[in-house]
Amino acid sequence: MLLRDFKIGKKLLLINLISASFTMTLLILSIAIIALITNRNNLIQDLKIQSRILGESLSASIAFNDAQSAQHLLEALRWSPYIQKVVVLNREGQTFSSYPLQVKIDLNQKLTFWNSLSNVVIQQPIGVSNQQVGQIYIVASLHHIYIQLGKFLLLIFFGMILAGALGVYMIRRLQINLTKPIIGLTDSMRQVSNTDDYSLRFNLDSKDELGELASGFNTMLGKIESHQAKLDSELLRRKHAEDRLQQLAFYDEVTKLPNRHYFKERMEGAVASSIRYKKLCCIMVIDLDDFKIVNDTLGHNVSDDLLLAVAKRLSNVIRTSDVLCRIGGDEFALVLENILIAEEAIQVAKKIINTLSQPFVLEGREVFIGASIGVSLCPTDTADIPILLRNADTAMYSAKNQGKNSYQMYQPEMESKNILRFSLESALRRALENNELLLHYQPQVDLISNQTTGFEALVRWNNAELGLISPTDFIPIAEEIGLIIPIGEFVLYTACLQAQQWRERHAVDINISVNLSGRQLIQANIVERILAIVESTGLPFNLLTIELTESILMDHSKETLDKLEKLSQSGFTISIDDFGTGYSSMSYLKRYPIDTLKIDRSFVSGLPEDANDVAITQAIIALAKNLDMKLVAEGVETEEQLEFLRVHKCDTAQGYLHSRPVVAEQAEQFILNKNDRNVVMNNE
Ligand SMILES: Nc1nc2c(ncn2[C@@H]2O[C@@H]3COP(=O)(O)O[C@H]4[C@@H](O)[C@H](n5cnc6c(=O)[nH]c(N)nc65)O[C@@H]4COP(=O)(O)O[C@H]3[C@H]2O)c(=O)[nH]1
Known about the structure:
Largest sheet: 8 strands, mixed, barrel
Structural class: alpha/beta
Strand order of the largest sheet: 12-13-15-16-17-18-19-20
Oligomer: single chain
CATH topology of the largest domain: TIM Barrel
Radius of gyration: 65 Å
CATH superfamily of the largest domain: EAL domain
Bound molecules: ligand C2E
Strand content: 15-25%
CATH class of the largest domain: Alpha Beta
Number of strands: 20
Distance between the termini: 115 Å
């Protein structure tokens, strides 16, 4: 492990220990050397003094050649801890005396450095009356000095150990004081980097560099925190924007359901898994019936509410695994995955029709719509996604053509019917310019006077290629594509002009009834248009009856009420066609200015045998009488029906019994022959 890998505390401790040990060692060595030199010098000085004293004492012994007394003197040196040996030489240089006895000194031996570290040799001449009589050599050992020095050093060593321990303790304390904040800072940094929590702060109450470091660290965190907050809010904003784009790209704003893009993606997945797991999947296209009327009459806000309510109802009848999307204005689509038999899809379609047939309450009004559903199965019909969708569309159109509020499973034969519809549509667009439209008139006969009092004008379309086309086939198409407006105006103008011509020609007031489509009535200027057209023909307003179906009155809107009141006040008669078949609530009868009810031919057909038809017809007659309204019975085909209606005080009859709808010339005959049925009957 390298020094740089140690923590700061250990580094500091180690550096301090090494430097202290080095310094101490140097110090001890210096002290030891100085002590050694000093002691040695002191010893030399002492020995010199001693040798001089000894020399003076020995001078007499040498002079008198008294070796014994010299020996005694030398013996006294044994108390010196330093003196190793002493040799006294006489004048001739022979050993006179020594200590210890018989000891010799090699006087020729060279004094080396190493010798000088262990011994000290002192030479002192011995004189008597200024004459040298001998010499004294003292050899002293430094051993004792070394022992003293050793003891001294041992003492210093222990002192140093103590000082070292104290130093370590102090360093440790210092280190704790220094490194604690650093460790705290490091921990804080680690915590911040682990948790990304930039609101953390490291509080250090200190004004030194560490205090500055901590405050710098906190400031930096503060800045990062504020940057992070900005970044977070920017990221959030972007996320919202992305979500919003995703929402817009794949979801419908009004219903919050997935849109067409999403639907196509899900279809791909459903088809792929249907093939892989050998199960059926079903695509359902659900088109709302009469949604355009709601949209045109009640406005966009209410229709948006309606779409939302439809989406909720649809969601309630499907499984959570089914995918419901809004793929167009009033068009929804459903993907059902993992179904075993077609019957499962049929059950769902029935549930949808049932739930959407219930009235919707929007802004306090009851609104009725229905749905036409087309169903296509994968892989039974096809596994090609665009074709699958087209098949479901084809089936949906087929359901619509067959009277709406129903479902159809895709059949290949539907293609040809659809082609027929498209050719009908394009031919209808040219019908007016080509004068292919004409009117037939069906007489309405007063049941008391037996006189023809009026006619219902019914449009006919005679196309060179397609032949005579029934209004039940082309009026719904004209309504869908908006052509009903010019067609309706053509009918109104032609019928009023015809009635006026009959009036002028035969001096008789003939009432004329004209059907007014819902699409016509919702035009903002419909009242002005009707007034202008009728006025242009010269027909008195009181001779025109405007026939409306019950469904037109469903919205209870103020606009419809205003329009009908204006029409009524202008003198026109307002009549409800096919009464009793459409709208369950009859509250509109009181609200709107209605003059006449037309009993639907489905009730008349069962008269007088069918007890239900009898009861309903009687009830309608009673209702009309109570509300002071006139009654016209439609579809009167037999004398028995006519008799029943007469007995029950119905006012007017219209039907094949008197005449089918006929061209104007034949209708005129009817006026001339004063209700001679045989003249004009059955010409259609
Ligand atoms: N089985 C039977 N049928 C009888 C009898 N008497 C009359 N009818 C038929 O019943 C329909 C009566 O017209 P609607 O209820 O207004 O029903 C009309 C009306 O809703 C619509 N229509 C016809 N002409 C116009 C028009 O000019 N404008 C609008 N908006 N709709 C029209 O087309 C529907 C069908 O018209 P049409 O085919 O002319 O069929 C006519 C008429 O031919 C009878 O005794 N027995």
